[in-house]
Amino acid sequence: MPEQPSHEYLLQLAQEFGTPLYVYHIEKIAEQYQKLKTAFQKSDVVFFYACKALTNVNILKYFKFLGTNIDCSSINEVKLALYSGFQSSEILYTANGISFSEIEEAQGLGVNINIDSLSNLEKFGKRFGHSYPVGIRLRPDIMAGGNLKISTGHNKSKFGIPVAQAGKILELVNRHDLVVRTLHIHTGSDIDDAEIFIKGIEVLFEIIPGFKDLQSIDLGGGFKVPYKMGDKEIDIQRLAEKIFETFTNYEKTNGRQFRIWFEPGKFLVSQCGYFITQVNVLKETEATTFAGVNSGFNHLIRPMFYDAYHHIENISNTGGEKRKYSVVGNICETDTFAWERTLSEVREGDYLVFHNAGAYGFEMSSNYNSRLKPAEVLIIDGKAQLIRKREEFSDLLRNQVITDFL
Ligand SMILES: Cc1ncc(COP(=O)(O)O)c(C=O)c1O
């Protein structure tokens, strides 16, 4: 198991590269991937890293080196994957709500495609018919995931084709002689219960007989990782056992064997990431003591967006007396990272690190309030390397077209 970067080391990186700063520890990614591979070794499983979590090309290249496939949610992610060395056959494009022209572009690049609407499926059928195998994303009507905002398989979700419309799917498949190779579901993020995956598989098993060309069942991502002290990650070993059992029984009874696909994002990169900020201002109020840092939801939106929890530590005063602080950002809106959190005494100028910052951290960052995006640093073999420069003022102007209309 790789050792976590120490507080002293993170502090040294903050001083060397400046803050706010994203830091990724590459060996942690390898450890997480190894856990998945070991747990699922009895089954025929392929892992597609859901790169929406973190797309820095150095990270993508590392996944290629580790031997994963890759799951993309936009045509630009597909292009980044190709740029990083993935073969078309190793790339899966699972998007939703996209224009048909983007699907045509993906087809032109030769990647695997999961289609998530009847209208695009029909267009695909008319345009490509039998000539290009395809996958279909279904909505299994299962409530799963950490909270409603990150739940994607329930009966009010925009994702996938409702499983109740399987008849319509088959009509299109037959009319256009489509070759459906994959059925896909992704029910949500932060799933800690293996049974949810089994429920999803059972929904798929109901409709599988209609799909004669099926080769793989894609169960999406969503494996929960620990966020707080004492929190647990999903029991991957148990999940793997259950999945093995369920598919083996199906094979015995129905004589059909499928390859299982997964699209883990968070499980692979959440814990490798640290986000380091510096305290600008301390403010005592009757409600709480605010520790205002030199960042905000423009750099790490997860707490404000969907109530995500990030463990926070004061790495420049680790021995300080414990007190409660509300850690807030400098954005001109309510911008709370944590309310009444116990930290070692915080002084202006101290450095606070946010854990679990690898997934959906930098990736969801923006220039709101015309703030600059942070730098990214990668730790490999105990050495830190800059993998994205901190933005500069000129980046804010880069794509603006200055007209002389006045
Ligand atoms: C289709 C699909 N697959 C995989 C993932 C990855 O989920 P997670 O990062 O929770 O593993 C997502 C997340 O949004 C998704 O929408």
Tell me the layout of helices and strands.
Layout: H1 7-17, E1 21-25, H2 26-39, E2 45-50, H3 57-66, E3 69-72, H4 75-83, E4 91-94, H5 100-109, E5 112-115, H6 118-128, E6 134-139, E7 161-162, H7 166-176, E8 180-184, H8 194-207, E9 216-218, H9 236-254, E10 259-262, H10 266-269, E11 273-284, E12 289-293, H11 302-306, E13 312-314, E14 322-328, E15 336-344, E16 351-354, E17 375-380, E18 383-388, H12 393-397
Helix pairs in contact: 2-9, 6-7, 8-9
The structure holds pyridoxal-5'-phosphate (PLP).
Characterization of this structure:
The protein is α/β, with parallel strands linked by helices and 406 residues long. It folds into two domains: 26-268, Alanine racemase (TIM Barrel, Alpha-Beta Barrel); 270-391, Lyase, Ornithine Decarboxylase, Chain A, domain 1 (Beta Barrel), CATH 2.40.37.10. Helix content is 30%, strand content 23%. It has twelve helices and 18 strands. The protein has helices spanning 7-17, 26-39, 57-66, 75-83, 100-109, 118-128, 166-176, 194-207, 236-254, 266-269, 302-306, 393-397, and strands at residues 21-25, 45-50, 69-72, 91-94, 112-115, 134-139, 161-162, 180-184, 216-218, 259-262, 273-284, 289-293, 312-314, 322-328, 336-344, 351-354, 375-380, 383-388. The strands form two sheets. Strands 1, 11, 12, 13, 14, 15, 16, 17 and 18 form a nine-stranded mixed sheet that branches. Helix 9 links the parallel strand 9 (216-218) and strand 10 (259-262). Helix 8 (194-207) packs parallel to helix 9 (236-254). The protein is globular, with a radius of gyration of 23 Å. The protein starts with 6 loop residues before the first helix and ends in a 9-residue tail after the last helix. 44% of the residues are buried. The mean pLDDT is 95. Pyridoxal-5'-phosphate binds at residues 50, 53, 71, 94, 186, 189, 220-223, 263-267, 359.
